[in-house]
Amino acid sequence: MAVDTPFAGWPVRVCPVRRAIVVTGDDDCNRTGAASIIRSTSRDDKGWNDRGRNTGDDRGSSNVTHEVGDWLRRRSSAAADWPVDRLLDAKRDTRVSVVLPALNEAATVGDIVKVIRTELVERVPLVDELVVVDSGSTDDTSRVAADAGARVVHRDDILPALPAVRGKGEVLWRSLLVTDGDIVAFVDADLKDFSADFVTGILGPLLTDPSVQLVKAMYDRPLEIGDTIVPAGGGRVTELVARPLLNLHWPELAGFVQPLGGEYAARRTLLEQLPFPCGYGIETAMLVDTLRLVGLDAMAQVDVGVRRHNHQDEAGLGRMAAEILRAVERRLRRAGAHPAEPNTVLTQFERDETGFRVRTHDIAARERPPMATVPEYRARTRLVER
């Protein structure tokens, strides 16, 4: 059953079908083969500011700026939209490299490599190069990855004249020196229940649309604590640090469901122009710098379902947050200064049975002036003194 709800200032209809965060035309939600979960039921678009930002619902409204709403319609898709045979037809002579940065991931890296090797190298020739870059593991990560079929390169052996520093961004940056793909896909090495959709999904828009430069995966991130699973409870730094910062200073990027996700692909011609923070600031910086270089329309996201992985403790999350803040601060400084008036709308996402739903919140966080400056208070004080 379809449910009407506003989206980007449009009344829209949410339909029980497979694709995530896409708005299309006025056709019937029950049409066979319908591919989107959000469909416009009216073209009477008066603008999201005119409709108000705060609905009174603690969950927030589903209004986003027209730029973000339009981007969500055109640049969000699902892994199912990118079947392998379609990608092979589009690939032609494009070379594809897949890179797994790894540090003590012997428990998971082998299964990931096997899936990619079996399904996307041997069964179909979609991936030309599968590389694991080991950044100093003390377990059997390198051996397990090599046995599973990856080419293993050690971080310190890449550009040895430049002493390596710790951090994920350092590994990704150095990986560009030991790969030759026209498109480079990055996949974290700690994923559980890995499927080839993580790779085919992020490759799809790049192989089929030459205007796309960067594609991020989006997914649910359950938080697993012992035997307890909190659905969509992962991504704590995303919700507490990265998303608020991006919404404040780069609201064009508010449509990314998983801005810190480690699964993304980009054209080498873009990657070689980007600075790489050496640590956890890499994902945030890459979004901001890509926006600056090529614009929002050159970016896309693909729903790959659920992402299960190892989680860090609070101290680790704190370090991650600090590095993200540093990357943001550096980019604001390069831009000249903090914006005089930052954006005051926070865009978040919820998953329901139909896909991701947009929720926006007013975060203006207004302040009152010192009471001593309020005339009524000053008058009252004078009365008391008398």
TrEMBL record:
Cross-referenced Pfam families: Glycos_transf_2 (PF00535)
InterPro entries on file: Glyco_trans_2-like, Glycosyltransferase_2, Nucleotide-diphossugar_trans
UniProt cofactor(s): Mg(2+); Mn(2+)
Database matches in SUPFAM superfamilies: Nucleotide-diphospho-sugar transferases (SSF53448)
Molecular-function GO terms, alphabetical: glycosyltransferase activity
Keyword Ribosomal protein attached: no
Biased composition (Basic and acidic residues): 41-60
Catalytic activity of the protein: an NDP-alpha-D-glucose + (2R)-3-phosphoglycerate = (2R)-2-O-(alpha-D-glucopyranosyl)-3-phospho-glycerate + a ribonucleoside 5'-diphosphate + H(+); (2R)-3-phosphoglycerate + UDP-alpha-D-glucose = (2R)-2-O-(alpha-D-glucopyranosyl)-3-phospho-glycerate + UDP + H(+)
Annotated EC: 2.4.1.266
Keyword match Iron: no
Keyword list, A-Z: Glycosyltransferase, Magnesium, Transferase
Glycosyltransferase 2-like domain residues: 97-191
UniProt-annotated stretches for the region Disordered: 40-65
Listed PANTHER family: GLUCOSYL-3-PHOSPHOGLYCERATE SYNTHASE, UNDECAPRENYL-PHOSPHATE 4-DEOXY-4-FORMAMIDO-L-ARABINOSE TRANSFERASE-RELATED
Family stated for the protein in its record: Belongs to the glycosyltransferase 2 family.
NCBIfam families recorded: PRK13915.1
Protein name: Glucosyl-3-phosphoglycerate synthase
Lineage: Bacteria, Bacillati, Actinomycetota, Actinomycetes, Kitasatosporales
